[in-house]
Design goal:
This protein has helices spanning about 1-20, 40-50, 65-75, 75-90, 105-115, 145-160, 165-170, 180-185, 190-195, 200-210, 250-255, 260-265, 280-290, and strands at about 25, 55-60, 100-105, 120-130, 215-220, 235, 245, 265-270. The chain is an alpha/beta fold. It has a single domain (about 20-290), classed as Rossmann fold (3-Layer(aba) Sandwich). The protein binds 2-acetamido-2-deoxy-beta-D-glucopyranose (2 copies).
């Protein structure tokens, strides 16, 4: 009698644990915020509908919505990452690990979190249109007035590697000019570091390899990210801006431990038709939700 009660309790316990889906942390892209109902707000709802209401934390950088919006342009990624690491470590619900979804630049920022702050542990990292090798061109900006977009683009073309832009403009910190690769290496204040371009920081490679999975989604008809291949961690062969160097031949593949992730079957490349971040609800349900379960 006692035994069967234990057995029943065990079955209940297991189905309860089985039903608990890991918490999800999301980081929005440029020109967006944590919580607009038409963007990340609706994605949070979608995730909750399909995961038995798991805990979803959509990161708000800086404590209010205005700061959060501005952070995408004007708060240095190093500061943002530090802020997020603090927020995550203080959140008891994440203590046993979480899955992460980064939207556009939020993709490379969350990767920086995985590399710099292994606690609490990130388990699955999903990058939706992230620019892991930076951008060289910003042909269009999403949800911005055309004049603002033009202005930012001009600054990037003419002054991306000036000290003040590297301090003050987020997009400059992952501006990657293949015609000025040396300047990129010596001046970039963010991307060069998280991509181990200067030295192979083993801690970064080790921490990245703690992931169970690193999934990169590329928008096949992207007109915002240049080159599109940056979404799969590829970039131009140095010295020109036409040809793409295959990931396996790039310095970062070995040096950041991507090769090891790949060998362990933890690196996934997904492609989806459409422009930047234009994914349908059905595609998300079919391709992203299963990664969270
Ligand atoms: C949903 O999660 C709760 C606990 O949070 C659990 O009791 C319930 O059985 C789960 N439901 C389903 C359908 O998995
Ligand atoms: C999107 O890009 C893919 C791959 O390059 C191509 O096969 C497809 O025709 C494109 N779709 C549209 C709508 O342009």
């Amino acid at each position: 009698m006692m035994k069967s009660i234990y057995l029943i309790l065990l079955i209940f316990y297991c189905s309860y644990v089985g039903a608990t889906v890991r918490p999800v942390v999301m980081w929005h892209g440029m020109g967006d915020t944590c919580c607009f109902p038409f963007s990340l707000g609706s994605i949070k709802k979608l995730i909750q509908e399909h995961t038995n209401k798991t805990y979803v934390k959509s990161l708000e950088i800086g404590g209010n919505i205005v700061m959060d919006y501005q952070s995408g342009f004007f708060i240095h990624p190093n500061k943002q990452v530090e802020y997020v690491c603090q927020q995550l470590s203080e959140d008891k619900k994440l203590a046993n690990g979480y899955n992460a979804i980064g939207f556009s630049q939020g993709g490379q920022f969350l990767r920086a979190v995985a590399q710099r702050c292994p606690n609490p542990p990130m388990k699955v990292l999903i990058s939706l249109g992230g620019q892991h090798q930076g951008v060289f061109g910003l042909p269009k900006c999403p949800s911005l007035k055309t004049s603002t977009c033009e202005y930012i683009r001009k600054i990037l073309y003419y002054a991306a590697y000036e000290e003040w832009t590297q301090k003050e403009l987020v997009q400059a910190t992952y501006w990657h000019d293949p015609l000025r690769e040396d300047e990129y290496r010596s001046r970039s204040t963010f991307l060069v570091d998280i991509n181990n371009e200067l030295d192979c920081n083993e801690r970064y490679a080790e921490n990245l390899n703690k992931l169970e999975k690193f999934v990169m989604v590329k928008f096949l008809n992207d007109t915002i990210v240049q080159p599109k291949e940056s979404q799969w961690f590829e970039f131009y062969t140095p010295g020109q801006d036409k040809e793409i160097l295959p990931l396996k031949k790039s310095h970062v593949y070995k040096c950041l431990g991507l090769e090891q992730l790949d060998l362990d079957g933890k690196l996934d490349f997904l492609g989806v038709e459409g422009d930047h971040l234009q994914l349908s609800e059905q595609w998300f349900i079919d391709n992203i939700i299963p990664l969270l379960l």
